Amino acid sequence: MITVNLENKTALVTGASRGLGKAIALKLASCGADIAVNYRSSDEAAETVWREIEKIGRKAMLCKTDVSDSEAVKQMIRSITDEWGGIDILVNNAGIIKDSLILRMSDESWDEVINTNLRSAYLCAKYALRSMISKRWGRIINISSLAGIIGNAGQANYSAAKGGMIALTKSLAREVGPRNITVNAIAPGFIVTDMTMQNLPEESRDTMLARIPLGRFGVADDVAELVAFLASEEAGYITAQVIGIDGGII
Ligand code: NDP
């Protein structure tokens, strides 16, 4: 387990009620950061995360906000900034899938996936950057996907959003680097969460597993450890990168 010092830092983790976001929120808290736990609808799950962070001894704030909604994101970040004086670490993790082959894809599912997975990252970065710029310190970590690099049949909407996140990462890194703010993307392969395991047939699991040289699916903590490192002081010279975490998938 990586140990970095994030004391006196505040972090906003989007989609932190479950899956990767929950593991990331708990890991950053265990390193000393106070955590704004964003989610959309899972109240009970988010409250559990909130309690676990308080148990670790850090402050937690519940932010029930749809991150694709511009006005709502603006409000959420204003509340965090009013309460804690700003956001030092932003983890753009919230995401959904609405898979279908393109000929059957509805315009609504295209828009919903692009807005939830990509527009959200733009909005959260735009509003969180204000306090980072004034403090001359910040970390933005975007949870992209292997699908954003190599694409995936049946996931044109998702892959386009995740690829867009990578381009957003590189552009923002270039824009805010002079203010001592790093921006990186993580591209996980197959990590065991609700998103991947719900409705996945046994034979698809086996096919997927056969493509992973390390012989196992990833777990949320694999990603959380990497996020903690990228958020740390020690990672201060790493920016504009896309870091794969996929067991060497082929
Ligand atoms: P889960 O489905 O387990 O969790 C998704 C989280 O996002 C939940 O906390 C959910 O909140 C939140 N969320 C969804 N829509 C919104 C919204 N509009 N506003 C705010 N919060 C929202 O997903 P994972 O943990 O598996 O995935 C997390 C991220 O990692 C995603 O961006 C995903 O694309 C990416 N990823 C995951 C991989 C994997 O193998 N699992 C692989 C590559 C990338 P609520 O609980 O309230 O619904």
Tell me what the structure shows.
- This protein is of the alpha/beta class.
- It has a single domain (10-242), classed as Rossmann fold (3-Layer(aba) Sandwich), CATH 3.40.50.
- It has helices at residues 19-30, 43-56, 70-84, 107-135, 147-150, 156-176, 194-197, 202-210, 220-231; strands at residues 10-13, 34-39, 60-64, 89-92, 138-143, 181-188, 242-245.
- The protein has a seven-stranded parallel β-sheet, sandwiched between helices.
- Helix 1 (19-30) runs parallel beside helix 2, helix 1 crosses helix 9 (220-231) and helix 3 packs parallel to helix 4.
- The longest helix is centred in the middle third of the chain and has 29 residues, at 107-135.
- The chain is globular and about 50 Å long.
- The model has no long low-confidence stretch (mean pLDDT 97).
Q: Could you describe the largest sheet, including whether it forms a barrel? A: 7 strands, parallel
General form: globular
Going by helix content, strand content and strand pairing, the class is alpha/beta
CATH superfamily: NAD(P)-binding Rossmann-like Domain
Q: What is the number of independent domains? A: 1
**Termini Cα gap:** 27 Å
> Could you name the CATH topology?
Rossmann fold
Summarize model confidence as the mean pLDDT.
97
Architecture blueprint of SSEs:
Layout: E1 10-13, H1 19-30, E2 34-39, H2 43-56, E3 60-64, H3 70-84, E4 89-92, H4 107-135, E5 138-143, H5 147-150, H6 156-176, E6 181-188, H7 194-197, H8 202-210, H9 220-231, E7 242-245
Parallel strand pairs: 1-2, 1-4, 2-3, 4-5, 5-6, 6-7
Helix pairs in contact: 1-2, 1-9, 3-4, 4-6
Bound molecules: NADPH dihydro-nicotinamide-adenine-dinucleotide phosphate.
